[in-house]
Specification:
binds pyridoxal-5'-phosphate; D-amino Acid Aminotransferase, Chain A, domain 1; 29% strand; alpha+beta; 357 residues; 6-stranded mixed beta barrel; single chain; D-amino Acid Aminotransferase, Chain A, domain 2
Length: 357
């Protein structure tokens, strides 16, 4: 049964797309479902949300987002096992969406309504949620400044929309990734917008990512903008370094995205008895730790990749293999626990999973 609290226009059956035969062959974020959700803001209020067929947006070429980048988004996933579907800490994504909105001088949305509306959309698109382990329906809530105007000031009109994309694993397999430490480019400085999930942060990251690709590395590890010395985060993940029995990650000081996977890893590993610290970690400390054997494992944590083992770091012209270059024991355990919890196979003792069917 579909709960019709939002106005719904269903796509005619003959216009619906065929679903990918093998989701593992689809590249991330290239296929979208039949419906989307939209909600407009003008005259200082949000108008009722609507679910309707997936379609192009109509925007004036002078829309503020196209010139000054006033736009934010979120990334979350719906998982399915048999008839049951799951979301992982979705309220956290809407809370972060609202902090991004506040930082970018955009209106916030009602967290609980946004979640209910999303669940309604997901119920309509349930058949699009893939079931194989490691697959999911990626959810992209977005807000853009739509007012037609040239001039740097906050828009008076916005569009909030949600699109859905069935995806396989972000990295082709759960194998160690190679990361290039950026020593010539920076992502975010204190007082800037690094903690907001705003479009420009990603545009600003492209140049360094291109350099990484040139040398055969798949991701970039950013250092702080002040001293170019302390590790911040990876392209779409927060980073954890295990030094003997300490698990360390960069602190939240406004320059990195406060990852929901990061927060979950901190909770779980503290629960498992690790000494977990959110502290400044210099790249020299990491390199020295790799050389002395003190660094036992390094991994990234984020919704898209879940947990990604890091096998190799490139810094200032040298490649450093992390431990034996394979998948660390804690990395594997976190991956298994998180992916298990996200699809209802591992008991959710933290109350993180929202179930719907
Ligand atoms: C820059 C950046 N850092 C970290 C993350 C990880 O955040 P989360 O675990 O909430 O997906 C993401 C992904 O959204 C990201 O884009």
């Amino acid at each position: 049964m579909i709960d019709m609290t939002v106005d719904v226009e269903l796509a005619p059956h003959e216009q619906r797309k065929s679903k990918p035969a093998d989701i593992l062959q689809v590249s991330f974020g290239t296929v979208f479902t039949d419906h989307m959700l939209s909600m407009e803001y003008s005259e200082k209020i949000w108008h009722p949300a609507r679910i309707h067929p997936y379609r192009n947006l109509e925007l004036d070429p002078s829309a503020l987002v196209l010139h000054y980048g006033q736009g934010i988004f979120e990334g979350m996933k719906a998982y399915r096992r048999w008839d049951k579907c799951y979301l992982f800490r979705p309220e956290k994504n809407f809370e972060r969406f609202n902090s991004s909105a506040t930082r970018m001088v955009m209106p916030t949305i009602n967290r609980d309504e946004a979640l209910q509306n999303l669940i309604q959309l997901l119920k309509i698109e349930k058949d699009w949620i893939p079931q194989a382990r490691g697959t999911s329906l990626y959810i992209r809530p977005t807000m853009i400044a739509t007012e037609s105007k040239l001039g740097v000031r906050p828009s008076e009109e916005y569009l909030y929309y949600v699109i859905l994309s069935p995806v396989g694993p972000y990295f082709k397999s759960f194998e160690p990734v190679k990361i290039m430490v950026a020593d010539q480019y920076v992502r975010a400085a204190k007082g800037g917008v690094g903690a907001a999930k705003t479009m420009g942060n990603y545009a600003a990251s492209l140049k360094a990512a291109e350099k990484a690709k040139e040398i055969g590395y798949s991701q970039v590890l950013w250092l702080d903008a002040n001293e170019n010395r302390y590790i911040e985060e990876v392209g779409t993940m927060n980073l954890f370094v295990r030094f003997d029995d300490e698990l360390a990650t960069a602190p939240l000081q406004g320059t990195i995205l406060p990852g929901i996977t990061r927060d979950s890893v901190i909770h779980m590993t503290r629960d498992w008895g690790f000494n977990v610290s959110e502290r400044m970690i210099s790249i020299d400390e990491v390199i020295e730790g790799i050389e002395s054997g003190k660094v036992l494992e390094i991994f990234g944590a984020g919704t898209a990749a879940v947990i990604a083992p890091v096998g190799n770091l490139w810094y200032k012209g040298h490649a450093y293999q992390v431990a034996d270059g394979g998948i660390g024991e804690l990395t594997q355990k976190l991956f298994d626990q998180l992916t298990g919890m996200q699809c209802g196979q591992v008991q959710d003792k933290y109350g993180w999973v929202t179930e719907f069917s």
